[in-house]
Design brief:
Layout: E1 2-6, H1 10-22, E2 26-30, H2 33-40, E3 47-50, H3 56-68, E4 73-76, H4 83-100
Parallel strand pairs: 1-2, 1-3, 3-4
């Protein structure tokens, strides 16, 4: 199941992607709403992670778009250091759960 990560800080997006990919997840990351919109429209993503730096208006718009494009779970995140530990504790179990649901 592909996961899309949207975050405003490219270095944090890269850190999340590095951990997810290291652990065998198929993930892609972007820092702008426009990039996220284009990828969501492909309907290839089952999970969307939205970082804490994404403002409320953008967050609401992206969540609505995700619902229309077959995203099965949206995860709201606000990374804390160490990032790899946070990703493994908070994101990975939810991605696995979503994949197991079918």
């Amino acid at each position: 199941m592909r996961t899309l990560v949207l975050g405003r800080t490219p270095a944090r997006v890269a850190a999340v992607l590095a951990t997810l990919r290291e652990d065998g997840f198929d993930a892609e990351g972007v820092s702008t709403d426009e990039e996220a919109r284009k990828l969501l429209e492909t309907e290839e993503f089952g999970v969307l992670i939205i970082g804490g730096g994404v403002g409320p208006d953008s967050r609401a718009t992206i969540k609505e778009l995700a619902a229309r494009h077959r995203v099965r779970r949206v995860i709201d995140g606000a990374l804390t250091a160490p990032f790899d530990v946070y990703v493994r504790r908070e994101f990975e179990p939810l991605i696995r759960e979503t994949a197991a649901e079918g």
